[in-house]
Amino acid sequence: MLQPFTPGEVLSRRSSLQLAAAGPLLSTATGSLVANESPVTSAVSAAVQRGRARSCIFIWLGGGAAQMDTWDPKLLGDPTQGSKKPGSAYPAIDTAIPGVQVCEHLRLMADRLDRGSLIRSVHHEVIDEHAAAVNRMHVGRAPTGTTIYPSLGSVVSHELGREDSDVPAYVVMGYPSATRGPGFLGAKHNYLYLIDTASGPAGLQRPADVTPGRLERRQRLLDTMRDDYRRRYSGFRGVEDYVSAGVRGEALAGPRFASVFDLNSESADLRNAYGSEFGQRCLLARRLVESGVRFVEVAFNLNFINGTGWDTHNDGQKNQHVLIQELDKSLAALLDDLQHRGLLDSTLVAIGTEFGRPPEFDGGGGRGHQSAAFTVPIFGGGLKSGVVIGATDDFSRKIVDRPVSVPDLHATLYAALGIDPAKELLDGDRPVPITDHGQPIAELFS
């Protein structure tokens, strides 16, 4: 006899087979299973709380930001060349969350920390290779020889789709990278990338010498060629994706999407509040999600400030405070702006990096790499705020409470966006879990 399933119960193999044998449409204690959906996946999914965010701004601190110099301060160390004393480079200050401190250069964010939460126990095993660590944080699992996995942004594009036909689902402000790509989801869920954020996507703009009449004639010829190509290669997904990408590109060349890049339409006071070039990227990110873009990655490297960006080896550590102050100003302005416009609850803001740094200073006064423990702050998105997840030891070398894997982090971001973190995607006919067995951080879902 088939026994009812209790929410939170772990399904045995026998129970799973009993559920499957009962038919594609079966009412259970957790809800209704639908045709072609795994009974196990459905039962688990029903127990997962979902957030109400409709978009995500993912700020990327490329190079590996030092957690003990930003969001997880420890006792002061000594960066003087030749010193052996490990620890934070800067004093700590109190925040809006009682008992929680951050680096002194995050003064504005200290006052706003209760609008979000700190995940201080993120970890993975990739240490020495930046590209592999960047891939791990964007894709959520190690690469294999048989499957090209999609990035966070591409999964969000696939699951949520475009909110408006005149805007893309996924935008990257930075240089293109396969790490941020769609993998087996196909070109339809690739990103639009921006290098010069002031002028917008130059590749979508019509050259000045192409008059409307010439453009119309070209469009008729292109449509004819497309139709012929699709007939000859009917059923080929790559062809359909390529054609669809071209059609979307033509829509994005319209005036509505172009108007999003007109930052001068914002007040001078607001633009000044956001600050430097990175701040203007954050302002543009707000305008993009306001227009309906689902996922925006904002890269913040600015290597010219300290010579190394967030990869603070050797002399890069000396001017790291300038980077932190820029992050503080721009991130605070972004949160204020989103809240003022009523967008903070519907916009998830996460600050990622490929790994952290160790507490020891190297011979040049900088720091090496550490992936055993680092911090990812998240704000808004309707999640519970004022929470600190996880803890590290006295020098932030290792996690002592509540480890959070990268798959767990991804599952949390997906759940906050209303995406089922237990869902399976399809690589052709092969089912692929949307995360590598990640579990959402339950404490963040009220």
Describe the model.
The protein has 446 residues and is α/β, with parallel strands linked by helices. The chain folds into 3 domains: 13-46, no CATH class; 55-205 and 253-444, Alkaline Phosphatase, subunit A (3-Layer(aba) Sandwich), CATH 3.40.720.10; 206-252. It has helices spanning 13-21, 39-46, 107-112, 130-139, 152-160, 212-232, 237-252, 255-259, 268-274, 277-291, 303-306, 320-340, 406-416; strands at residues 26-28, 31-33, 55-60, 92-94, 101-103, 116-123, 170-173, 192-194, 295-299, 347-352, 374-380, 387-389, 391-392, 399-401, 404-405, 424-427, 430-433. The strands form 5 sheets. Strands 3, 6, 7, 8, 9, 10, 11, 12 and 15 form a 9-stranded mixed sheet that branches. A two-stranded antiparallel ribbon has the order 1-2. A hairpin with a 2-residue loop joins strand 1 and strand 2. Helix 10 (277-291) packs parallel to helix 12. It is globular and about 70 Å long.
